[in-house]
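Hey, I was hoping to borrow your eyes for a little while. There's a protein on my desk that I can't quite get my head around. The fold is given in discrete form, as structure tokens running alongside the sequence. I'd be grateful if you could look everything over and explain what you see. Here's the protein in full, and shout if anything looks odd to you:
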Amino acid sequence: MEKLIYSGSPHIRGKSSTKRIMIDVLIALLPACITGVCFFGLRALLVLALSVVSAVASEFAYNLLINRKSFKNCAEEFDFTSVVTGLLLGMNLAPAIDWYVPVLSAIFAVVVVKMMFGGTGKNLFNPAIAGRVFAFISFSAAMTKAANFASGSIVLPESGATPLTQLLNNGNIGDYTLLQMFLGNTPGCIGETSALAILVGGLYLVVRGVIDIRYPLLYLGSLGLISVCFAGFDFSVFLPSILGGGAMLCAFFMATDYVTTPDTVKGNVIYFIALGILTGILRYSKTSDKIEAVSFALMMMNITVPLIDKFVVNKPFGYVKVRGKKEKEAKQ
């Protein structure tokens, strides 16, 4: 009995770690990042670099100054979550954005949204999407100006609108084609335009067992169907609605964040279907900013996760529900 070791659950541990999962996510994000730089030019690379460096520096600075840790301890505990946050944030910004926007947004995402809530695994909101919303609210003029910029091989139409803007305002994607939207040869944010590159990265995460393919499909499917309903049951808007904007990037890389999603399978089914429906509602609402629908929908659903986990729980192993007279007796 002297050698008996007491420990809390879980008692069975897998080989995966936060660091290993984050490295997998970074590898999966590379196709979309490379595609964005190829389409938008070196300015896109600068935005990504500023965002990542600012996020990592913010985490180290917080641990050094607030948590009073040594630099050696900070380096040993570094789990690449801030790198993922910075990279996702940069991918959610336009290539022409002013330099201070990714810097300040990354600091807000890491320090306020993650570190002040206790660090990795304790944040209420997805840090990257919260940083994107912070940029939209705080620097709306700069965000609007940057959205109308295109460089590299991207050529804007006369309207200067993205495919999603065209779809929501006119009911069609205008001069664009579905092939252009799939490949990414359209204006938009750095990492969200190429559905093909996002799919490649997403499938990598599925093969590695990092995410469950059912959840992105539930989100995209419910978003496409609710868009069809709002368009008067015009099924031609199904594919453009899921290929346009940040829906694909959200589906595979941000909505699937372990910390801000429910703990059960049923809870996740509810969560992802509701997220898709809410995104569609915000996109077609006359009182909301259509382009930021994905960002606000994801943050709103993040708030519901504790509520979902409270009411949607797994049954204990071997549990049998007591019915009838025995149930009344048990209550008494």
About this structure: The CA atoms of residues 53 and 140 lie 23 Å apart. Confidence is low (pLDDT under 50) at residues 155-159. The radius of gyration is 22 Å. The first helix runs from residue 18 to 40.
